[in-house]
Amino acid sequence: MKTLLLLLSIAFLVSCKKDPKPEIVNSQFENGILCMNEGLFQQNNATLSYYNLDSNKTDLNQFSIINGRGLGDTANDMIAYSYLGKPYIAIAVDVSSQIEIIDALTLKSIKQIPIFNGTNAREPRSVNYHNNHLYSINFDGTVSKIDLDTHLITSSLICGLNPEKAEIINNKMYVVNSGGLNSPTYDNTITIIDLNSFTIISTFISDINCSSIIKDNQDELYLISRGNYSSIEPKLLRINTSTNTVIQSFNINLTSLAYYNDILYYFDNADQSIHTFNTITETYNANPLIDCSNFQTMYGIHINDLEQLIYLVDANGYTNSSIIRCYSFSGVFQYEFTGGLNTGQLLFK
Amino acid sequence: MQLKTYISLFSCVFLFYANCQNNDTLKVVEVLSKKDSILKLTVLNSSVPHYIITKDKLNELSAKDIGDALKYIPGTYIKDYGGIGGIKTVSYRSLGAGHTNVEIDGVILPNTQTAAINLSQFDVFSISKLEMSSGQVQNHYSTASSYVKSNLISISSSLIDLPIKKINIKLMANASSINAYQGALFYQQKLSKHLSFGIQSLYQFGNGKYNFNIQNIDSTYSAERQDSNLQNVKIKGGLTYHKNKLKIQLNSNYTDNQQKLPGAVVLYNPYNDQSLKNNTLNSTFTGQYKTKNIAIGTNVFTQNNQTIYRDNHYLNAAGYLENQYANRTVGGGFIFNKFLKFETQKLFIGSDYKQAYLTGDQFENSPTRKNINSVIGLSKWLWKIKFQANLTHQYIYDKTPNNSKEISHFSPFISLAYIPFKQYKFRIRSHYKNNYRLPSFNDLYYNAIGNSNLKAENAKSFNIGFTYGISINTSTFETTLDVYQNNIEDKIVAIPTKNLFNWSMQNIGDVLSRGIDISFLYAYKKKHISLMFSTSQSYNSSIDVTEKTSLTYEHQIPYTPTYNASYTSTIGYKKYDLSLSLIHTGNRYVLNENLPFNALEGFIDLGIGLSRTFKLKNQSIYCKLQIANILNNNYEVIKSFPMPGRYFNLKIVYTFNK
């Protein structure tokens, strides 16, 4: 009986050992990179992490440390904007169906805006800022306009099926409708919204299952059409915004897209490398800029235009911490740091 | 390689057989294995980990279903999604549900679609016995399929035994404060000296609402668990013929289940509208024949199952997602045992055939599977050593409209147990089993995700331990200790391939699992007082050894607590019984990477029950009041699926036997 009690108490002691709480670090968010980590579906583990360029250290879970609550489930987009002279950050939290507005200097939450249609979550996929308003692109097929004084949705427009992202050119918003949840009948349209009147101008056909959209300095749009993941291959599309037509399409098996100064950077799955595309000559360089064969899961390209650096995200199989690797514009590796789960956006401060 | 193993094993088997013919130390040994007391869990005279939970033990544990009851067996971890109608699947020593077969009344439940059985579908009502064994089946009648997997859960219902009395009635009503209600009826009648007929039905309903708290960093997220409405009807009928050496059983089961699925708790978004409807009809025939020299077990079954899943918040053009599946299985098999002087020594051989067919919205190419499982084996005493060995063979042939696939595997099992002292109930035991988990229809053919090139998941299990028991006057003390190692290779997991939208099933992942399972029991009985205390303690290190350069190399695999324990205690005084049951699970990780952020905190769940039996002539009434999770701890077994806090349960069972 004594042995039994002894063993039980040992068992109890062993099992009560807890992991120490992570140390709270007061980062100043002045010289570093803020990472939005998407987390995983139904795990409530979207986070913000901050890579401090002075200390070369990553501080994880900054949103929850500062705000005492979690960011939510599946963060999908993060943008920086300034309103009445003050810098803010807006985060689209998809499954929680919220737009989270935080102070860009302190990361303190200013307002959490629920994006719902009654009891149906609209699921914001991305967010755009234009003329003192935020626009939430929602997976339920709508775009919601948010007033930044009241932080209320003023109205919502119905666009196409499962829109992913939007780009704004001359007060006009181009919304990419993927139709991703309607597989195998994907959407292939782009909805144009007049942002002055917040009404739909027109809709035109591009190609199926588009995700990324980027404008260049000539007001042309570049899109990734993801194909249908089996018989139809991905493409890079070039769109003329005065005629609203696809003027060129390139058979490149690409996934990520970024733009800076007349150059598109994309990841080509064929050779697992980053390539460039010149938006003036409209030609791509067959020679890779950066070899990514050491990546487990290529998850995004981000450009720091001030420092002239390229940041590539390796999502490590989507279930482990991401690693962000930094390269010069000539493709030379600089350094790397750890992010959270599925780092989806970076902001350079 | 396979053939070699096969041949060498067989030569071993026959060599032992030839050598052991005249050796007979058996009688002495087997006398030690008297009928265990009713509240015990472990089977001391077994060469492999083997646990029995009797009807009385089920009552004592206040188990609603067999998933609840299995939580008390060392080495098990029940993945419990909580609430009424929540899924429960078993993981035993880090081997997933696909490595455990579930047998009800002698027939293995087919589940070719997912390979995992939901244990919450088996209510404890009119279950006479629940068993779990690892390594090799410990009875004469289970057919070949019961031998192929690493672990076996066997459920025996009261309906299958020929009753002693002519008329047997049992009525049960159960109400719990999480808005769940049950009513059940059991009727069994002897039609002649050798023939009985029985029917039982169970109705379960309620909205399953309960309050929960989830820790949201520094704040607590409190809400009501909604959308758990459930309506479930189960009807079972059976005919039993039992005369001398022959026992024949006919059974039919019908289940109709309609439920809402509460879904994961998502921060800041409380809305959800998912539902599940399923119905199952199965019929089984089992035959058992036993003489002094032989025992034969045989069965035939059919099963039809339909499932409809619907999500009304799905953001597609239709505004909802609906998936339907229909699954049809037929099969049968036999086992033949030749006793070698005593029932504990035998040669056995058997084979099963099963055919499964699945259609569904998510299966563009409806698959058909033909499955043959076979076993040949030997149990033999050799001086003070008990030797057991078997060789199983699994074969599947799958056909889809445009493809076909074959998988074939031999797996050996070998066990040695040693009883050094005649006068003590002390046994050293060891076993080795190689076990293949064949890919399910979902793994292979589910639209977009399925991968028809999958191989079987391969697990090698080693176990060594001892059992010891002693009775002094009015006290009994028993203990078992087992140390094990499981090497799992080619684990079948879903991973994203080209991108996050393109998940696919792959044979990726090697796991090295090592652990210790300990059980203790102390029982005391004197006049009106009885006292029982038991505990199981499990330590488990299951690490990812897939790739040395990986971020998760040597990290504990998800949902595998390094420490897990259970405690039960019963104090009986005259017709009253006070029982305590406690589950203590340590920290777990929800993802592969062992970061503090990925940890799910451990928990303690303590339940208390008080019962009384009123006995009249031919009749009895059993009442039990139970307080579940009396400490009102908030915890999750699966992340984002909170379990109920403290709740009350009242159960009344009336029995009539004449």
Describe the model.
The complex is a heterodimer of chains A (349) and B (658). In chain A, a hairpin with a 2-residue loop joins strand 22 and strand 23. Chain A is built from 2 helices and 31 strands. In chain A, 6% of the residues lie in helices and 52% in strands. Chain A has 349 residues and is mainly beta. The N terminus of chain A is likely disordered. In chain A, the strands form 8 sheets. In chain A, strands 22, 23, 24, 25 and 26 form a 5-stranded antiparallel sheet that branches. A 4-stranded antiparallel sheet of chain A has the order 3-2-1-31. With 658 residues, chain B is mainly β. Helices cover 7% and strands 59% of the residues of chain B. Chain B is built from 6 helices and 37 strands. Chain B is globular, with a radius of gyration of 25 Å. The N terminus of chain B is likely disordered. At the A-B interface, helix 1, helix 2 and strand 9 of A face strand 27 of B.
Q: Which spans of chain A have pLDDT < 50 for at least 5 consecutive residues?
A: 1-27
Shape of chain A: globular
Tell me the Rg of chain B in angstroms: 25 Å
How far do the termini of chain A sit from each other? 64 Å
Number of domains of chain B: 1
Uncertain runs of chain B: 1-37
CATH class of chain B: Mainly Beta
